[in-house]
Amino acid sequence: MAIGLYSLLEAAILCLNAVCILHEERFLAKVGWGVDQHKGFGEDPGVKSQLLNLIRSIRTVMRIPLIGVNIATMVLKLLFG
Amino acid sequence: MDVPSEYRAAPTKPSQKRRPKGHKGGQPAPQMAPPQQPYNDFSMHNQQQQNYMQNFGQPDMFFSGYNTGNPGGAPGPEQQFAQQYLNNPMANMAMQYGSSLAGQGKDIVDKNIEKVMSSSKVKYYFAVDTAYVGKKLGLLFFPFTHSDWSIRYNQDEPIAPRYEINAPDLYIPSMAFVTYLLVAGMVLGIQDRFTPEQLGTQASSALGWLIIEMLAFSLSLYVMNLKSGIKYLDIIAYCGYKFVGMTVSLLAGAMSSNTVYYCVLLWFCLALVFFLMRTLRVQIVPQSEVDDGHTIGTKRSLYFILSVSLVQPLLMWWLSSSIMIYRRI
After folding, report:
1. N or C: which end of chain A has fewer CB within 10 A?
2. Contact A43 B208 (CB under 8 A)
3. Which of A3, A14, A38 to substitute to test the interface with B, most B CBs within 10 Å?
4. What is the pLDDT of residues B107-154, one digit of tens each?
5. Which percentage of chain B shows pLDDT scores above 70?
6. Contact B205 A51 (CB under 8 A)
7. Domain boundaries, chain A
8. What residues form the membrane-spanning segments (chain B) (predicted)?
C-alpha cells in the first residue's frame, strides 16, 4: 500500500475531523467519557483520562483551523478531482 | 548572493547535448577568435550548465554558450548581444533585485526553520565519526553481546554520539534511508519494473510510514503518560534504524534467492527488536515514586516498548517485500 504524502495529509484531515465531531454533551457523556466525570487530580491520570484530555484539546485547538482546511480541501477536490 | 563562479562562464566542451548550430538566429560560429582569458579557466562545465544559464536568462559578458563546440571560443557577435542586455538598466536592476530577494528569502527560511527544528539541537545528532558509525552498525547487526546500554549524559543537552555509543544519532538513519531508496531502485531495475517515478513513490511511501510511526510513537507516549527523556529527534532516529536492516536484506535477496532475503530479514528483525527493547528500557523510566504507580508504570512502559519493538519487523517486512516479492505476470 503506497502511502504518499498526499494521502497521509488526507488521512490526517479525516482523523482530525472525526475527533472534532465527538460532541461533549450529546455523545461522550452518554458513553461515560464526559470530561466532568473524570476530572480528578490524581498523580497518575491513567490512560482513559489522558485520552479524553487529548480529545478535548484536539477539539478546542483544531475546531477553527479545521473549518478553513476543510473549505480549502473541498474547493481543491471540486476543481481537481 | 552573486552568481556562483562556476556558473559565470561555460566553455563549450563537445558533448552529446550540444545545441544545433545556428540555434540562435543562425549566426555562424566564429572560428579562431582570440580566446578570452577567464573563459579558459573554467574547463569543467558542459552544455547543461549553459542551458541552465540560458534558461534563467542571466546575461553575462561571457555568454558564448550560444556557440557550439568552440573551445575557448570568443563571443564575437554574441558579445554585442550580451552587451545589449548588460547595458539595459532595467535588466541590471532586475538582476540586483532578484539577488537581493533571494538573500531575503534565504533569511526568512532560516528563521522559520529555526523555530520548527532548532538546528543547534539537530547538529548534535550528526556529530558522528567513523568509529562510532562502525560500532553502531555492528550493534545493529549483532546486539546480543552488548552489555551496557545506558547513556551517560547531562540532562539538558543531547550528547554527541561521538562520545557515547548508546546515544541515538540521525546520521545512520538518514543515510540508510537514502541507501534503501537507491537499492530499491536497483532491485526494481533488476526485475525490469523500474521507472523513475518509482523512486519518488518508494521515497514518499517510506517517508509516509515513518511519519505515521512517529505519530503513533509520540501519541502513545503521551497517552500512556510515560515520562521519559525521549526527544522527538530521538524518535526519528529509533524509527529510522530499521532501514539499515531493510537495505542489507534487499541487497542479499537481490544477489541470491528470495529465501536468502527472508532469512536475512528475519535476522535483522530479531536484532532490531532486541536492540530497541534494550535501548528503550533504559530511556523510558517508569514512574517509581508511588507504590502502585510503580507497578502500573512498569507494566505500561513494558507494553509500550513491546509494541514499538514489534511494530518494527512488521514495517520492515511490509516495505521491503513489496519490492522484493512480486507476481510475475
Report:
1. C
2. no
3. A3
4. 887 777 666 666 677 777 788 888 888 888 888 888 888 877 777 766
5. 62
6. no
7. 1-30, 45-80
8. 170-191, 203-223, 235-253, 259-280, 301-319
